[in-house]
Structure formats: structure tokens, C-alpha cells
Amino acid sequence: MNGLAMYGIFFVIFGLVFWRRTRAMVRPVQGSGIKILLPMLFLLPGFSALLQFQLHLKVWEVGVAALIGVLLAVPLIFTTNYEIRQDGKIYAQKNKTFFIALIAVLVIRIALRQFISGIDPISLSMLFFTVAVGYVVPWRIISFIKFRKVKQSQMLGEEIVTIKA
């Protein structure tokens, strides 16, 4: 697969994530919020690449990729919050800075891909998959915890409207 097709797929996925997040801000979170954790489940097939391909990665390279992912998760974590609106349902809080943070993550990933050279394409893809896991997993787990706090305050009948990091 050439680089242009790879970027095309990447932008389609990014567009779907962007669209889904804008929809989430106008629709209430249903049930116990388990759907917040689903993107972590969608990452599982990517781990099969670890078993199928001969990767030439060092432990420190994977560690740095995971650390970069965790650092990219920080702005997403701080800009993802939940609120109880007048209808008594819980919504993702409208936040323009979240979209700025999401676009920044995209730009940083593209810049890193252009900057890194000398690694075979499969290993490079696995490093960027590790970066993605590094920011999706902490972001979604902490988002779920934030949701559960708002849900718990709703069940207790407290007047807390938002829970921030």
C-alpha cells in the first residue's frame, strides 16, 4: 500500500472519529457508559500484527512510542468532560478545545511519520499503532471514570453539573 492510500485511510478514520465526537455532544450517553470503552476493543485486532510479522523493534522504541501516546492522551483527557443537562441526561460536554487537541494529535502523528526514517514500513506501522494504543486506552479509561462520577452524582441526586479532571 503506498503512502497516499495510507493517508487516505487515516483521514477517513479521523473524519469518522471527528464526526462521532460531534454527534456525541448532542446525544446523551446511554446506559452505564460501557460504549465509552469500546474503541479499546476495536484496537485488539491490531495486536495480531505482533504475532504475524517479523518486527525489528527494540524495547526502548516501543516504550518511547507508548510514552508519546500517553503524552498525546493528556490534552484529550483534560478536554473530555461530561455534564447533566436540563433533561436529566448525561452528555459529553461541548468543548471546542477538544477538537483543537484532536487535530493537534493528528498533526503530530503526521509530523512524526515524516520525521522517522530508517525503519521498515511494518515496524513503523506497529510503532504508530503503539502510539495510538498509548493515547486511546488512558483517554477512554479516564473518560469512563469521569462519566461514572457524573452518573453516580446523578443517582445520588447531587447538584454537581460537571466533573473536570
From TrEMBL:
Keywords: Membrane, Transmembrane, Transmembrane helix. It comes from the Bacteria. The chain crosses the membrane at residues 6-22, 34-53, 59-78, 98-116, 122-142. This is Cytochrome c biogenesis protein CcdC.
